[in-house]
Structures are given as structure tokens and as C-alpha cells.
Amino acid sequence: MNPGFEYEMALGTNTTIDVKAGLQVALDPLLPDVYEELAFLPAIAGQYRYYYNFEKRQRNRKQIYGNSANYVAPAAAVFFPGTRTIENEIVKGAFGYTGVVTGLQRSFDSGFNFSVDVGAAYYLGQFDSAIYPVANLSIGWIVSEKRWCVGR
Prior knowledge:
Shape: elongated
Radius of gyration: 17 Å
Low-confidence stretches: none
Mean pLDDT: 85
Oligomer: single chain
Largest sheet: 7 strands, antiparallel
Order of helices and strands: EEEHEEEEEE
Strand content: over 45%
Number of helices: 1
């Protein structure tokens, strides 16, 4: 979960670019046991989303407003943890990942929306690069729907 700002803009009929900046809960690949502890880090993340079930949702009389559909997306993020001490060693520098996720987004007439996705990504930085899981949860409010919402 990341308190911050998110912007989603339509690029085509079923595609959007989604960019986020804020604080994000993340794995720290420099820790001896990566899954032991989560970090709360400043981050910038982006996804190129392909929504694939608008037509099916409409046929079933389900809402598609605000891109309420399922998606697949290549995803990338860069984390800026600052200087920290791990195993009595001072560590500096950013790290990031690039991978693929699948998820869903739901938006409501009130403006409330959420998205959740999971996948796998290749983490790189000042450590031995490796593949780790990725999971994102965004809960928010639609401020402006002019450029990216379908269904209105």
C-alpha cells in the first residue's frame, strides 16, 4: 500500500499508463532474509495496463466505469531507501524491479476506487539480482475522469 499520488491515462481503447509516486511497503533485497521484514520506502512505480474484460462485464451488466476490469501489465518500480545499516554495514543507493503483474481495478460512482495485482519481478540494485514476488494494493479517490475513465 502506498500513500501518494497516482495518475492513469488512456493510451488506447483497452490500454492505460498508470504512474504512482509516494511511500510504498516493499521487500528489501539487501536483508539476509528478504521475507522477514518489510520496509516503508519512497518509490516511483509504473504499469502499462491492458484491460481485457470490458465486453464481458458489460454483457453481464456489471459496471465498467473508471476502468473497472481485469488487466495484465508490465510493471516497474524504483525505491529510494536512503542510507541504512544492514548487518553492521552502511548501505546507500536505490534499487528497483521490472516484471509482470495481473490484477483487477474497480471504481464506483462515488469516486472511490481500488486496484490489486500480483506477479513476479526481477529485482536489481546493489545486491545479487533475483526474482521475487510483487503485490500491489491501491485504494483511492478519482479526482478527474476526463482522460482515462471508460463507461461514462
